[in-house]
Prior knowledge:
Largest sheet: 5 strands, mixed
Strand content: 5-15%
Shape: elongated
Strand order of the largest sheet: 3-2-1-4-5
Radius of gyration: 41 Å
Helix content: 55-70%
Number of helices: 14
Distance between the termini: 66 Å
Amino acid sequence: MAEQTGQERTQPATARKRSRAREDGQVAKSREVNSVMLLGGAIGFFALFGGSWMRLWTETVHTGLNPFAFFEMDLGWRELGRHWMKSILVLLSPFLILFPILAIAATVPQVGFKITPKVLTPKLSKISPLNGLKRLFSASGFVEALKSIGKVVLIGSLAYGTLRPEIPYLPHLCNLPLGGALSHAALIAFKLAAKVWVALLFLAILDYGFQRWNYERELRMTKQEVKEEMKETEGDPQVKARIRSVQMNQARRRMMQEIPNADVVITNPDHVAVALRYDRDQEMAPVVVAKGAGWLCERIKQVAREHGVPVMERPPLARLLYKQVEIGREIPLEVYRVVAEILSYVYRLKGNVTHGTEHN
Length: 360
């Protein structure tokens, strides 16, 4: 749309567009946060349970390398396969349970929890070479390329700095027992993983900020798109304004038709006018049947004079009724006495009121 109209995307995305983008799987998500959570979980697991896990792993490997262990177990090939499969699952079970939980914990705070089946629907555009080139040379693709290069350089430099002091000691590992060699290798790996985790944490913070900024930038809309969406959701403003105008005219026409049935019109005198009617048989209190300000005030007084409805100047009362009482509603309790005196006076003079006469 922006390319067709030549307009720039300067307007923030509406709630409807954000909802549609979410359904399409377009969310502000940083994969680096997931990497940091998974690596941090692995480091935490090894820090707490690494010793016992390594002993179990060493025993399993030692048994697997011992040819006499197969005969000591006295198992058939099928049972032996089940035994090794169970041993491997026991060794990997912490990660099979921990990693999915960490992945969910890293994703939900970023994008919330919502199942979007539309994302799972295969799309040819995702495997299109042309679209792939567009994504590659886009701003996000450029940042992803820089990020990948940066991670390779960062992790490579950390690995070199960590392993270089250990290189002279690596040949001596052959003289150590298997458990000692694995423990030493695990310690080096732990040091390297901790350094990489700190570096990735800093990178994840930067990447998450970029993903949020890029998400908002890609969702921006043109003014024309905002107008069209408002038409779709709320209707055309011009049509709505026309409908409101017609409704107001109809309401005003019905209001003017009620003025001849009013008992009295209370005025400001030149600013507001309020017409009251009181039917003892049907109403508990006088009712406002019409009110208006400005030119409508003059029109109400004109119609009242034409139909012999008394017009009386009571500025405080007229202002109060105009502001507080809607058309068709009864007057408030605090003005009962004042209105009763006016109506009593009107009823006494009603037979002698001359059309167009105003009473003070």
